[in-house]
Design goal:
The protein has helices at 102-105, 154-157, and strands at residues 16-19, 26-30, 33-38, 43-44, 50-51, 65-68, 75-79, 82-87, 92-93, 100-101, 116-119, 124-129, 132-137, 142-143, 152-153, 167-171, 176-181, 184-189, 194-200. The chain is mostly beta strands. It has a single domain, classed as Hemopexin (4 Propeller).
Length: 212
């Protein structure tokens, strides 16, 4: 089941990924391109990739992460020390008010940027940077006050995950949290509180999928 999640996506790396983004779909981002996933069939839709600018108006290329906040179900894009809030109704970022500095809108996160982030629940989100993780309290709208200012070690909180991950998200289709690094992905097994993986993205079981 978990391998089939990536049918149709040829390039074995993921810069950013998120699901249920306004239209009930999941999207993969890399460079100046994005792919839309057909979640029911567990493969990318035909006709992709497309340029980010063709759909995500005022969103920059080469983003670090896309983040669906479980507190307000709004979509945010992170790049370097900046973030952008996407207006799903208008289909664009309001460039009169964004981008903003991470330090302005996400108290306690690294001011120079993040590697990955996802909402684990309505009340909690996690952000990753290097070998550190930050627990974000969605209701207080700040990093959990019991966390050290420089975060906790990923290995202490998310057993089995590597450092310097590229992206993370909780897939609405199966309720499982996924993490990506280079050409591999991991999934979090809540029953044993540990990551399973790595699994190769687009391994030989899915070769030539992009030709269909």
């Amino acid at each position: 089941m978990f391998h089939s999640f990536f049918e149709g996506y040829c390039n074995p790396s993921v810069t950013a990924i998120e699901s249920w983004m306004g239209d009930g779909k999941s999207y993969i981002f890399k460079g100046d391109r994005f792919w839309r996933l057909n979640d029911a069939d567990a493969e990318t839709d035909r006709g992709y990739p497309k340029t980010i600018s063709s759909k995500w108006i005022n969103v920059p290329d080469d983003i670090d992460e896309v983040f669906l906040w479980g507190h307000n179900w709004k979509t945010y894009f992170f790049k370097g020390h900046l973030y952008y809030k996407f207006n799903d109704r208008l289909g664009q970022v309001d460039n009169r008010n964004y981008p903003k500095r991470i330090s302005e809108g996400w108290p306690g996160l690294p001011v120079d940027g993040i590697d990955a982030g996802f909402s684990y629940s309505n009340t909690q989100s996690y952000f990753f940077k290097g070998d550190k993780v930050y627990l974000y309290d969605n209701f207080l709208d700040q990093v959990n006050p019991h966390y050290p200012s420089d975060g906790k070690l990923i290995s202490d909180v998310w057993r089995g995950l590597p450092n310097n991950i590229d992206s993370a998200f909780r897939w609405y289709w199966d309720g499982i949290s996924y993490f990506f690094k280079d050409d591999s992905y991991y999934w979090w097994d809540d029953s044993i509180q540990s990551a399973r993986g790595p699994f190769l993205i687009g391994d030989t079981a899915w070769k030539n999928i992009c030709d269909v």
